[in-house]
From TrEMBL:
Transmembrane segments: 42-59, 65-84, 105-126, 138-158, 165-182, 188-205
The UniProt record lists the keyword ATP-binding: yes
UniProt name for this protein: Diacylglycerol kinase family protein
GO biological process: phospholipid biosynthetic process
């Protein structure tokens, strides 16, 4: 007598499938990835640093678009990589060489993009080195404000448990420092990018407190 296979539980239906609900699900996926994926946290801090550099050095339109596109492309690749890893873990319950190669190949794609972004970033800095050298006062001011700002962003994405007040203080301090840099920003687009990344970091910190993982 054939024993029927146990039925899998039905996937719970979402309460709403409208446009705004779709945005909410996408936002939740982004925040979850930042909250629990180490590499995504590294990319976020790198994006903050790129935003600070872009707002401190007067770049051309092509360079601005290139840097912003690189940041967003790395985010996109890391999110896909994380989703693929979760899918492989769900489908393969035991070790499988093909599953390992699949994960490695996806991670390699992110690594190639990250390496290419570093090369592009270095090439832009070298090309604008004369501008950097002749604007030392503005650069020093940007560094003086940007280093503690990046430190606050790092605190927000650290996975270690801590009081909520620490995250609130770090976020307020980071936004205050960003407001000071905005007054002399060479590009409000990069300033806005930095602000958006800080909001994402704060949301990820809140996600870790609400849904801690063992």
């Amino acid at each position: 007598m054939t024993v029927p296979a146990p039925s899998r539980p039905q996937f719970p239906s979402r309460r709403s499938n409208g446009l705004f609900a779709s945005f909410g699900h996408a936002w939740a996926g982004l925040i979850h990835t930042v909250a629990w994926q180490r590499n995504m946290r590294i990319h976020l801090i790198s994006g903050v640093l790129v935003g600070l550099v872009g707002s401190g050095i007067p770049l051309g339109l092509a360079e601005k678009v290139t840097l912003i596109f690189c940041v967003l492309l790395i985010f996109f690749a890391e999110i896909l990589n994380s989703a693929l890893e979760q899918l492989v873990d769900l489908a393969v319950q035991q070790f499988d060489e093909k599953a390992r190669l699949t994960k490695d190949a996806a991670a390699a794609g992110v690594l190639v993009l990250a390496g290419g972004t570093v090369v592009i970033f270095a090439a832009i800095l070298i090309n604008y080195w004369e501008t950097v050298r002749t604007n030392t006062d503005a650069i020093f001011r940007q560094v003086a404000l940007g280093v503690p700002l990046a430190a606050c962003a790092t605190v927000l994405v650290l996975p270690q448990p801590r009081p909520a007040a620490v995250d609130v203080l770090a976020f307020i301090l980071a936004m205050g420092l960003l407001a000071l840099t905005a007054s002399t920003s060479a590009s409000l687009v990069f300033t806005a990018l930095t602000a958006a990344l800080l909001v994402i970091a704060a949301a990820a910190a809140r996600e870790r407190r609400r849904h801690p993982q063992p």
